[in-house]
């Protein structure tokens, strides 16, 4: 099956921070893909990913980044798919910078933001969204 959840992280160093998300999605039997895309060094690559996501069968996007975390907001500006943001603790401000950068989106481009390092809840939220049109997944979530 092709993935329904696309997970982007801003850096290779962030990959371990989304393991709580990928482990949960695995447990729910949800197919996902994980890619490293950095909007600061390669904004075109982030735009391309977000702009083609729906056509490639993705239904929910999850973006995790620390510090000046513009990744989720940029993705949200380029797609109508639901976007979940995971602010990561990194640098000197403990993730508060990433939290504000992720959550404070303008009207019309929401990012559903979980807690700092809240990777597991991002998976739960993504699965809940998918379960709206997938009764078998809904049953697995209840169980
Ligand atoms: N906030 C972003 C974005 C982005 O928003 O696209 N890309 C990387 N980063 C963050 O910068 C920090 C250092 O990244 P590097 O490891 O690439 O130097 C990480 O916390 C990453 O999430």
Give your account of this protein's structure.
This protein starts with a strand and ends with a helix. It has one domain (5-142): Rossmann fold (3-Layer(aba) Sandwich). A 5-stranded parallel β-sheet has the order 2-1-3-4-5, sandwiched between helices. It has helices at 19-28, 43-52, 71-78, 96-103, 119-131, 135-142; strands at residues 5-9, 32-36, 60-66, 83-88, 112-113. The chain has 6 helices and 5 strands; from the N terminus they run βαβαβαβαβαα. It is globular and about 40 Å long. By secondary structure, it is α/β, with parallel strands linked by helices. The structure holds ligand C2R. Residues 10-11, 13-14, 38-40, 65-71, 88, 90 line the site of ligand C2R. The ligand Nc1c(C(=O)O)ncn1[C@@H]1O[C@H](COP(=O)(O)O)[C@@H](O)[C@H]1O binds next to strand 3.
């Amino acid at each position: 099956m092709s993935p329904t959840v696309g997970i982007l992280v801003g850096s290779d160093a962030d990959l371990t921070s989304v393991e709580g998300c990928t482990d949960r999605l695995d447990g729910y039997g949800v197919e996902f893909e994980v890619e490293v895309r950095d909007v600061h060094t390669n904004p075109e690559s982030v735009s391309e990913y977000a702009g083609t996501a729906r056509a490639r069968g993705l239904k929910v996007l999850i973006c995790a980044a620390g510090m000046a975390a513009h990744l989720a907001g940029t993705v949200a500006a380029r797609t109508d798919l639901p976007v979940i943001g995971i602010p990561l603790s990194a640098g000197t401000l403990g993730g508060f910078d990433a939290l504000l950068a992720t959550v404070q989106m303008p009207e019309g481009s929401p990012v559903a933001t979980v807690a700092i390092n809240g990777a597991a809840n991002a998976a739960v939220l993504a699965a809940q969204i998918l379960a709206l049109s997938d009764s078998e997944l809904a049953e697995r979530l209840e169980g």
